[in-house]
Task: inverse folding
């Protein structure tokens, strides 16, 4: 735990220093918020938010807090995820493509933990995918399961690394910024909701991370509303 706190504090300090420096330059009046320095500030603030979200999810699981299951629309959840991820896509210089989701589909999970897990996957995708490429978010049903795919275009991974990325403090690409904890926390968040999180490597193209959860349907009165 002390090691994790040390890494967390180090990354928190880095992001805060970057944001402070960018803000100081902007306050001098020589550059605007819409320029490159504003982009640096955006990325630093997003990084701080992501770091806090991951730490909150970890605290909940470490403390053994009860899972707060509730039934909700998969389409509404993906729409919320898209809204929060759109800014990060813009800052990263990538395109976010989100497929249409069947309005009848639902999941019965802890929404905050699932949002943390899916958000981590998208953050990871934006971090490692090649500039001016595409990150794809796809949610659909397969038999009695709900699958949420996040696909990036990072160029693929070395053989055997797909599973190792879920080990804490493991970083599998040239971009070594961050703690290497996001995927580990994401997997535990999904498993706490009776699901699984797996990764598929597409050599020369990228990776597909898949959240697999039990399938549910919305009550008819909810759909009609």
Result:
């Amino acid at each position: 735990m002390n090691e994790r706190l040390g890494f967390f504090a180090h990354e928190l300090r880095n992001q805060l220093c970057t944001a402070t420096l960018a803000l100081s330059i902007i306050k001098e009046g020589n550059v605007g918020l819409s320029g490159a320095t504003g982009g640096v500030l955006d990325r630093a603030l997003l990084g701080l938010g992501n770091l806090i979200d991951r730490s909150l999810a970890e605290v909940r699981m470490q403390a053994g807090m009860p899972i707060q299951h509730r039934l909700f629309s998969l389409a509404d959840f993906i729409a919320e995820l898209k809204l929060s991820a759109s800014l990060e896509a813009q800052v990263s210089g990538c395109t976010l493509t989100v497929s249409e989701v069947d309005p009848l589909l639902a999941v019965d999970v802890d929404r905050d933990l699932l949002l943390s897990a899916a958000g981590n996957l998208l953050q990871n995708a934006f971090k490692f995918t090649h500039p001016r490429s595409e990150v794809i978010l796809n949610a659909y049903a397969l038999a009695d399961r709900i699958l949420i795919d996040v696909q990036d275009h990072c160029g693929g991974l070395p053989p055997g690394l797909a599973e190792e990325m879920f080990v804490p403090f493991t970083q599998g690409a040239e971009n070594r910024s961050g703690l290497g904890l996001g995927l580990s926390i994401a997997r535990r968040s999904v498993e706490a909701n009776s699901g699984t999180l797996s990764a598929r490597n597409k050599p020369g193209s990228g990776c597909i991370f898949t959240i697999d959860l039990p399938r549910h349907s919305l009550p008819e009165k909810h759909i009609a509303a």
